[in-house]
Design goal:
5 helices
Length: about 120
């Protein structure tokens, strides 16, 4: 049953991400990825709030945190993981995690783009 709640939350989060991106495009124009920036920052903020509020309510976490926020932005989960490492005194691991996640994700995207363009 939990997976159904995660899937429902993901659908809601994805729709919210789309609507946020449309609103940002209409309000601010196409020159900068304002929609992506908005969902990443807002999602990270909400993830921080929910991490505290839902600490004793684990049953809601899959729907709200994994589902809705995961569909809205996975950056919020990344941010929470990085902060938890810092809070656990693993500052060096947190720095490696942040750097490696960003650098490797960009490298993977560039590799995927190159491969797809080469195959096309």
């Amino acid at each position: 049953m939990t997976i159904l709640w995660v899937a429902l939350g993901g659908a809601i989060g994805s729709a919210l991400r789309y609507l946020t991106s449309l609103a940002a495009l209409r309000l601010l124009g196409p020159g900068f990825p304002w929609g992506t920036a908005a969902v990443n920052v807002a999602g990270s903020f909400v993830m921080g709030v929910l991490a505290v509020i839902l600490a004793d309510k684990a049953r809601l976490s899959p729907f709200l945190m994994t589902g809705i926020l995961g569909g809205f932005t996975t950056f919020s989960a990344f941010s929470l993981d990085a902060v938890r490492l810092v809070e656990n005194g693993q500052t060096t691991s947190a720095a490696y995690y942040v750097f490696a996640s960003v650098a490797l994700s960009i490298a993977a995207l560039m590799t995927g783009l190159g491969l797809a363009r080469w195959l096309a």
